[in-house]
Amino acid sequence: MPNGADTHCPYCALQCAMTLTPANQPGSAPAPAAAPASLAVPVLDVSGRDFPTNRGGLCRKGWTSASLLRHNGRVTEPMLKGSDGVHQPISWDQALMLITAAVKDTQKQYGMDAVGVFGGGGLTNEKAYLLGKFARLALRTSRIDYNGRFCMSSAAAAGNRAFGVDRGLPFPVQDLDSASVILMLGSNVAETMPPFVQHLQGARDAGGLIVVDPRRSATAAFTADGGGFHLQPTPGTDLALLLGISHVVVHEGLADTEYLRTRTSGYDALIRSLNAFWPERVQSITGVPATLIRETARRLAHGARTGGAYILSGRGVEQHVDGTDTATAAINLSLLLGLPGSARSGYGTLTGQGNGQGGREHGQKSDQLPGYRKITDPAARAHMAKVWNVDESLIPGPGLPAVQLLQSLGQPDGVRCLFVHGANVAVSAPDASAVVDGLRSLDFLVVCDFFMSETAVEADLVLPVTQWAEEEGTLTNLEGRVLRRRKALTPPPGVRSELWLMARLAELLDAPSTFSDDPETVFEELRLASAGGLADYSGIDYAMLDRGEAAYWPYPAGSQGTPRLFADGFAHADGRAVLVPVTPSKRARRSFANAAAPGSLALATGRLLEHYQSGTQTRRVAELAASQPEARLLIHPATAAARNIADGEFVAVSNERGEVVCRAELSNTVRTDTVFLPFHFPGQENANRLTEAATDPISGMPEFKTSRVWVRQAIPVALPTGAGLPLHVKEAS
Ligand SMILES: Nc1nc2c(c(=O)[nH]1)N[C@H]1C(S)=C(S)[C@@H](COP(=O)(O)OP(=O)(O)OC[C@H]3O[C@@H](n4cnc5c(=O)[nH]c(N)nc54)[C@H](O)[C@@H]3O)O[C@H]1N2
Ligand SMILES: Nc1nc2c(c(=O)[nH]1)N[C@H]1C(S)=C(S)[C@@H](COP(=O)(O)OP(=O)(O)OC[C@H]3O[C@@H](n4cnc5c(=O)[nH]c(N)nc54)[C@H](O)[C@@H]3O)O[C@H]1N2
Ligand code: SF4
Ligand SMILES: [Mo]
Questions:
Q1: CA 371 to ligand 4 center in whole angstroms
Q2: Distance from the CA of 641 to the center of ligand 1, in angstroms?
Q3: Is the peptide bond before 554 cis (omega within 30 degrees of 0)?
Q4: How confident is the model at residue 593 (pLDDT cuts 50, 70, 90)?
Q5: Across 460-466, average pLDDT
Q6: Ligand 1 atom closest to 236 (CA)
Q7: What sequence ranges are listed for the domain Molybdopterin oxidoreductase (predicted)?
Q8: CA 20/CA 7 separation, integer angstroms
Q9: The pLDDT of residue 718
């Protein structure tokens, strides 16, 4: 890598382009004068690179990402937990032997499905594809799912039923630049994808940026001065809000009737379903003034007719027990206005993880085979049996979605031996304390990671794997664009790639079919596997990606790829989009309006700019940890005063599942009935001690965004000395 490697950020789905150069080379930034003791000297410098998603910009996480490559907390040898609970290094040969024995013993005693796999949306396409194949053919289990179930599954389910296909943004991100109106539903890009904000600038300056968030997030604050506005609904009421906006569109004659007639089906049933959601009624459900509900509808319709209008959704509206229906309501609104597939307007969901898009296409989902094929579809099974050169009967059927998979750990007929690749479920899964109990009840837990994550700590065996800049591969960003991740650094000795691991284990387990450990060879197989599927990559190869060609799927061999979907039709057989009538379910209503809980508050959870997900990585970056060392509960001053809580004081946040202890931050950015916690911190600061493992009935997505909690003052008996350290508290008297 003499002149640096052109690659992309290890974190989110914006996949900002960056160049990695050896540190302290001529032209590179100087090393920090006093490198923190916990860090090795950075070996690579990061610079932003021009690319449509980021235009040279990076956020703080991107800038500091290379400091983890040689962090001294890195796991560099396989680590086996002894009977004393302490992990000790062992050789790779021993590790492979132990795993093989554990898999064989477990399956002999309890059946094939007693071995499970939990994957991640950060894995490259190659790793995600091979993991699905490894589970089905080497482990012969149906029990594979991944953390994308926590992230994208409701938006994906809604997209599939409305459009017949799920690609987060069905258009390139720069299309947003010229929009005059953008409705942002529960997405806080100003913190979760900072360089993305430049694509909102045009709409914001035109007075057309509208943000829906119960909290005055950084993105909501960005609407100010531009003439746009912030809608602040009661958490969990977005579905009603969207029905209200749709009601206005229909009743004020703002709908695009020609588009509805020629490009959609289901109009009559949809109209009937909207009848009961007139703006004043919706105001009483959501707290959003009827005038603003009408204004939102009118601005969107005006934008659709003139400068271009977009509706974008994020986790705030999707991570609910009615997330699929809420995303569907957003799609219905966009269809009423004629946005999807039109030249200057559209609808999209903002995919979250680095490979959140590609990771949901190639087979680590319990119901899925590569190319976004259904595992129950006989034609899909026959196709994959041919590519893998196995008998179709060898491919297991559908398994269990993530939450149910985790609930089955250690249970009779459940999973007893689990492989985790790229997820930290001990922190990030709903009802995390129950998940940790599940992990502890396993006969054998194998975790692949670069660090001792909270999940790795629970493992019998931790396997050290290569980090992003130490391996080749591809990712698919939030636009459905396939990108090359490049190797810039030799991994530390002792560290192995996950492709290598799967290939060796497949051999030891006598798997049928071949398992290559070479990324490009695996990608060539993925091309064949995806050919003819919805997410068809067959026309894409490493050479064209290395030349910087823009490759948007579907990209069948011989085509030019598809930057914009839906221009000529939707992916259903009749080419039409389906309007699916949806209304708030009793179950969802219960989750946000629990009237039988006096004194309780709605807990919303989400993200801070500085930390990524469960924080395994960013809590180890000195600069980021210094800036956000601990969880803080955002609470409205009036709500705090009623509980005698002062700014910076410790509070206990509790419900029937558990308790979080952290400092309070008084802020009028949250509603008086709502508190907000980030989920990046472990132990007593872990927000997921409070979330419920209730899931959306269609997508299996958990309810992360609204839980009922009680907040009270707490007095610490020992001060924390660092992020995530256990705090001991006693009750305030
Ligand atoms: N800094 C940072 N960036 C990230 C990540 C990270 O961990 N840290 N993770 C990446 C990933 S995987 C993802 S999925 C994306 C997520 O990106 P976002 O969707 O932007 O992130 P969140 O903070 O989870 O949620 C967005 C907003 O939803 C609001 N919200 C909560 N409840 C409700 C509700 O009931 N209705 C509405 N309308 N809004 C609600 C929250 O207040 C929050 O401001 O970010 C990606 N980028
Ligand atoms: N309360 C609450 N909980 C949430 C959310 C929320 O908004 N609120 N959001 C949910 C969402 S959207 C998501 S996406 C999940 C994410 O939550 P997690 O699945 O826990 O995500 P990460 O923290 O990114 O965990 C990835 C782990 O894998 C490691 N890792 C990174 N890359 C690789 C790799 O290539 N291979 C291997 N083997 N390991 C790797 C990292 O070091 C880290 O330990 O959290 C969910 N949990
Ligand atoms: S916005 Fe996302 S991809 Fe871009 S630098 Fe930040 S974390 Fe990386
Ligand atoms: Mo996510």
A1: 21
A2: 28
A3: yes
A4: low
A5: 98
A6: 35
A7: 74-507
A8: 7
A9: 55
In the chain, how many domains are there?
4
Kindly give the number of the ligand 2 atom that is closest to the alpha carbon of 122: 32
In-domain check, residue 30: yes
pLDDT surpasses 70 at 273 = yes
Per-residue pLDDT, averaged over 75-88, amounts to: 97
Regarding whether 367 and 335 lie in a shared domain, the answer is no
Task: Give 101-129 pLDDT, tens digit per residue.
Answer: 999 999 999 999 999 999 999 999 999 99
3-state secondary structure of 619: helix
Binned at pLDDT 50, 70 and 90, residue 627 comes out as very high
- Ligand 3 residue neighbourhood (C-beta within 6 Å): 9, 11-12, 14-16, 54, 58-59, 61-62, 193-195
**Does residue 574 lie in a domain region?**
no
Q: Are residues 179 and 61 in the same domain?
A: no
- DSSP annotation of 350 reads -
Choosing from 349, 371, 391, the residue where a domain stops is 349
Are 559 and 501 in contact, with CB atoms under 8 Å apart? no
Q: Residue of the nearest CA to atom 37 in ligand 2? A: 422
Positive or negative, the CA dihedral 54, 60, 63, 69 is: negative
Nearest to 314 by CA among 478, 508, 538: 478
Position 596 scores a pLDDT of 57
* pLDDT higher than 80, residue 224: yes
- Ligand 2 mutation target, pool 7, 68, 424, 502, most atoms within 8 A of CB: 424
Q: What is the amino acid identity at position 65?
A: S
> Which H or E run contains 675?
strand 674-678
Same domain, 480 and 599: no
Q: What is the pLDDT of residue 25?
A: 58
Question: Is 607 touching ligand 1 by the criterion CB < 6 Å?
Answer: yes
Give the distance (Å) from ligand 4 centre to CA of residue 151.
4
- Asked whether residue 143 falls in the same domain as residue 169, the answer is no
Q: In this predicted structure, what is the pLDDT of residue 725? A: 42
SS3 633: strand
Q: Are residues 328 and 373 in the same domain?
A: no
Residues 700 and 721 both lie in one domain: yes
Three-class secondary structure of residue 624 per DSSP:
helix
Query: Do 292 and 264 form a contact (C-beta atoms < 8 A)?
Result: no
553 is a domain residue: no
**Domain boundary pick from 486, 515, 546:** 546
| Distance between Cα 613 and ligand 2 center (Å) | 5
What pLDDT does 729 receive?
45
Q: Is 480's C-beta closer than 6 angstroms to any atom of ligand 1?
A: no
Q: In CATH, what number is assigned to the domain containing residue 719?
A: 2.40.40.20
Residues listed for the chain = 733
pTM, two decimal places: 0.96
What is the tens place of the pLDDT at every residue in 158-216? Answer: 999 999 999 999 999 999 999 999 999 999 999 999 999 999 999 999 999 999 999 99
Q: Please give the single-letter amino acid code of residue 148.
A: G
Q: How far is the CA of 701 from the centre of ligand 2 (A)?
A: 15
Ligand 3 atom closest to 195 (CA): 1
Per the structure, the complete domain to which residue 157 belongs is given by: 153-349
Query: Given this model, what pLDDT does residue 730 score?
Result: 44
| Residue ranges around ligand 2 (CB below 6 Å) | 120-123, 147, 150-151, 315, 319, 352-353, 421-424, 427-428, 448-451, 453, 465, 498, 605-606, 612-614, 616-617, 679, 687-688, 691, 704
Under 8 Å between Cβ of 63 and 46: yes
- Mean pLDDT confidence for 687-699: 97
- On the question of pLDDT at 381 being above 50, the answer is yes
Task: Tell me, using a 6 A CB cutoff, whether residue 213 lines ligand 1.
Answer: yes
pLDDT at 225: 79
CA of residue 266 to ligand 2 center, whole Å: 38
One domain, residues 124 and 168: no
Which value, in Å, is the radius of gyration of the alpha carbons in the chain? 25
CATH (domain of 142): 3.40.50.740
> Does residue 654 lie within any of the structural domains?
yes
Question: 42: domain CATH number?
Answer: 2.20.25.90
| Shared-domain flag, residues 106 and 130 | yes
Q: Identify the CA nearest to 690 among candidates 717, 665, 668, 711.
A: 711
